[in-house]
Write a structure and sequence with these properties.
Elements (H helix, E strand, L loop, with lengths): L16 H8 L2 H16 L7 E13 L10 E12 L2 E14 L5 E17 L5 E15 L4 E13 L6 E12 L6 E12 L2 E11 L7 E11 L1 H4 L5 E11 L8 E11 L1
Antiparallel strand pairs: 1-2, 1-12, 2-3, 3-4, 4-5, 5-6, 6-7, 7-8, 8-9, 9-10, 10-11, 11-12
């Protein structure tokens, strides 16, 4: 499951009108940064090639999530990742549904991220394979009335990690222009490893320097087995689990330790 920032941040943690208005003034430098990212993409080689693409649909279920009714949450995720000679794109949308409360109302939420990266420099025979200009747009709303539009801009690096089976690894540092809280910084690590049909991938997020909220650490690996060869089918079908460790979830005092069952179909 994704969910890096505050897609269902409790209303008690939302900031005052003063802080919200303060964030509105961050839009101008943010817009400039986003225009720069788009311009770099537009200036890319017209003969740019797609090097890799993957789209998947997954379903997760767990019953030990913090700040959710009875801890129960079902998530359907549409996810896309692609790499190109100019950089790459990662995009996903989560649809969450919780258990019914005492009034038979179900918690519902939609949350997504769109994260392009643009290649700045490549290196040969180095731990750092490529340096990127990185952007990220986070959006979401839920049945409590909360909504958000967060924008992140930063620098990232694709890494050569000398581990057999390592498919990819990256590290990025962002400045986050947050919609409902003060701005902060975020470090994101991503990784993917596969061997003998066993797949381990995921991310680590660390958000810090937010005057409104506590620093957050979210470690979110998925451990899966690819059944494609066993079943003799054309598409990858992975089954396994996801584990979510989230210290100070949404900047609160809550720490989440939540395993979920997972089924993931690639197209």
């Amino acid at each position: 499951m994704h969910h890096k920032l505050s897609a269902n941040l409790p209303l008690t943690l939302q900031t005052s009108k003063r802080n919200f208005e303060k964030n509105l003034f961050s839009i101008k430098p943010l817009a400039t940064a986003l225009v720069t990212i788009v311009a770099l993409g537009a200036m890319s080689n017209s003969h740019a090639e797609m090097l890799f693409t993957d789209t998947s649909l997954s379903v997760l279920y767990g019953d030990d999530y913090e700040l959710v009714e009875d801890g129960e949450l079902t998530t359907i995720t549409l996810e896309h990742a692609s790499t190109h000679t100019w950089g790459g794109v990662f995009f996903f949308v989560d649809r969450h549904q919780g258990a019914s409360d005492s009034e038979n109302n179900k918690y519902k939420e939609t949350y997504g991220e769109f994260a392009p990266k643009f290649k700045l420099q490549t290196f040969d025979d180095s731990l750092i394979k490529q340096v990127n200009l990185a952007g990220q747009y986070e959006f979401g709303s839920n049945s409590t009335g909360f909504s958000q539009d967060n924008y992140l801009v930063g620098i990232g690096a694709d890494l050569n990690v000398p581990i057999p089976g390592m498919k990819y690894a990256s590290a990025s540092l962002y400045h986050a222009f947050n919609d409902n809280t003060d701005d902060d910084q975020q470090i994101t690590l991503t990784y993917g490893w596969e061997k003998n049909n066993i797949v381990v991938d995921g991310y680590v997020d660390y958000s810090f320097n937010n005057d409104d909220l506590k620093d957050q650490l979210h470690i979110n690996p998925q451990i899966k087995y690819n059944l494609q060869d066993v079943l003799g089918i054309d598409n990858r079908l992975e089954v396994g689990m996801e584990y979510s460790y989230w210290k100070n979830k949404y900047g609160s005092d809550k720490t989440q330790n939540a395993p979920s069952a997972l089924v993931k179909l690639h197209f």
